[in-house]
Amino acid sequence: MPQTFTSLHYHIVFSTKHREPIITPDFQPRLYEYLGGIVRSQGGELVAAGGMPDHIHILVRLNQQHAVADVMRVLKANSSGWVHETFAARNSFAWQTGYGAFTAGLSTMSRVKAYIANQAEHHKRVTFQDELRSFLKKHEIEYDERYLWD
């Protein structure tokens, strides 16, 4: 085959450092908009974004030229710098070191978007920690609880 065709969608979950509830409703839309710009600069598309004051979920489409790890390194570094420059009162803002990235096929896209959109309702019943553990189990990812949280 002379060409390469890919459909690479990822549901990515990551938290503020120490799960600090610093992503407030007044700040959230601007943050998501900025994250979308970073994803676009990396050749991708931010399909959906949502979350809570202590963590976010993004659904992204990436091209085959960019590894998830590289995009996340740029996304976290640039967005953290932008927050510090733009919002002086948020000078303690930082992202956790790691993240969870889970593949999302086209057949599950509408469910993933709905899940991301309904974070506030979901977290009335489930903590972020339990949510992440559930994702790891569902995707059969082994982990050591001692190293799961920073």
Description:
GO terms for molecular function: DNA binding; transposase activity. It holds the Pfam family Y1_Tnp. One of its GO terms (biological process) is DNA transposition. This is IS200/IS605 family transposase. InterPro entries: Transposase_17, Transposase_17_sf. This protein is of the alpha+beta class and 150 residues long. The chain has a single domain (8-147), classed as Transposase IS200-like (Alpha-Beta Plaits, 2-Layer Sandwich). Helices cover 38% and strands 19% of the residues. The chain is built from five helices and four strands, in the order E-H-E-E-H-E-H-H-H. The chain has helices at residues 28-41, 68-86, 109-117, 119-122, 128-138, and strands at 8-15, 45-52, 55-62, 100-103. A four-stranded antiparallel sheet has the order 2-3-1-4, sandwiched between helices. A hairpin with a 2-residue loop joins strand 2 and strand 3. The longest helix has 19 residues, at 68-86. The radius of gyration is 15 Å and the shape is globular. The model has no long low-confidence stretch (mean pLDDT 93).
- Provide the low-confidence segments as ranges: none
Shape: globular
The count of helical stretches stands at 5
Encode the helix/strand succession as letters: EHEEHEHHH
Named at the architecture level, the CATH assignment is 2-Layer Sandwich
Within the largest sheet, what's the order of strands?
2-3-1-4
Q: Helix fraction?
A: 25-40%
What would CATH call the homologous superfamily? Transposase IS200-like
Strand coverage percent: 15-25%
Structural class category: alpha+beta
Terminal-residue CA separation: 45 Å
Number of strands: 4
| CATH fold annotation | Alpha-Beta Plaits
What does the radius of gyration come to?
15 Å
CATH domain class: Alpha Beta
Tell me about the largest β-sheet.
4 strands, antiparallel
Q: How many structural domains are formed by the residues?
A: 1
